[in-house]
Amino acid sequence: MSPVPHPSPATHQCLTPTSPGRFFAASQLKLFLAYIILNYELKPEIDGHRPPNKFFAYVRIPDISVGVMFRERKDRKQSFANSLIPVERD
Hints:
Layout: H1 21-39, E1 40-44, E2 53-56, E3 59-62, E4 68-72, H2 80-83
Antiparallel strand pairs: 1-4, 2-3
């Protein structure tokens, strides 16, 4: 009787090395978020107050039906990163 092959713990997906690209993607998302926060003002479309929360099971989440308005900061400083993106001025 031959033994039945079974996967060893070393070949499990959680234990195998993952792609290093996920670290690159995470750093790119952080840079993008930092750029948006530093160069733009953000506010919800509803003026005067924060939109009410929605409840899903035991989790409280923000209302995703409310849009977000972006406006370029007036005190935006010229930097190398900003010079790479063309900006139309009125």
